[in-house]
Design brief:
Order of helices and strands: HHEEEEEEEEE
Structural class: mainly beta
Distance between the termini: 74 Å
Low-confidence stretches: none
Number of helices: 2
Helix content: 10-25%
Strand order of the largest sheet: 5-6-7-8-9
Radius of gyration: 31 Å
Strand content: 25-35%
Length: 176
């Protein structure tokens, strides 16, 4: 038992001992080299972007949007969406949307109140009387998104604060 205590005491003393600091080696300056060839892999400075670098992400192709949808959907919390949409070659032919948020009111959008100001890369509608109000549409894989920006006047009360984009399956026209 005394040998165990003695060993412990020696180990503790060794842990407290100071070690001489070794001088840092002097590195001779290397002659300047030509800049390395530009790599196809971009160098990311932002820590968030570096996590995306090794993924096989490809940009969404820029092509005219074509979608037809006449759908209605009710989600688990009682939000009801009704949509009538026809877009051909990024030209919006018909658009009518009503989103009713249970307990908050409804938002209504109709093509007659908007003018189309852009076709590519995304169709963009701007409200005729309220310039800040815009409706954007874009493709995301097999789905199409309809987003509403700065349109509180199209909604009852504070309903615009609870308005989410409408997603549409491009092939089936189903909305959610």
């Amino acid at each position: 038992m005394r040998a165990g205590w003695a060993l412990l005491l020696v180990l503790l003393a060794a842990g407290c001992a100071e070690v001489e600091k070794q001088p840092e080696p002097v590195v001779a300056a290397e002659p300047e080299k030509e800049a390395p060839p530009v790599s196809s892999e971009p160098k990311f400075k932002n820590s968030t972007l570096k996590y995306l670098a090794n993924r096989n992400l490809k940009p969404q192709p820029t092509r005219p949007l074509n979608v037809k949808s006449k759908c209605s959907h009710k989600d688990a919390i009682g939000t009801t969406t009704q949509l009538d949409l026809l877009v051909k070659e990024s030209l919006i032919k018909s658009f009518s949307a009503q989103v009713t948020m249970k307990g908050y009111g409804a938002c209504r959008f109709n093509l007659k109140d908007f003018e189309q100001v852009e076709k590519m890369p995304q169709p963009l509608l701007r409200h005729k009387k309220d310039e800040g109000c815009q409706v954007r549409m874009w493709e995301q894989g097999a789905k199409m998104t309809i987003a509403f920006n700065s349109c509180p006047k199209a909604c009852d009360g504070d309903a615009f604060s609870y308005l989410w984009p409408i997603m549409v399956e491009a092939k089936s026209g189903r909305c959610f």
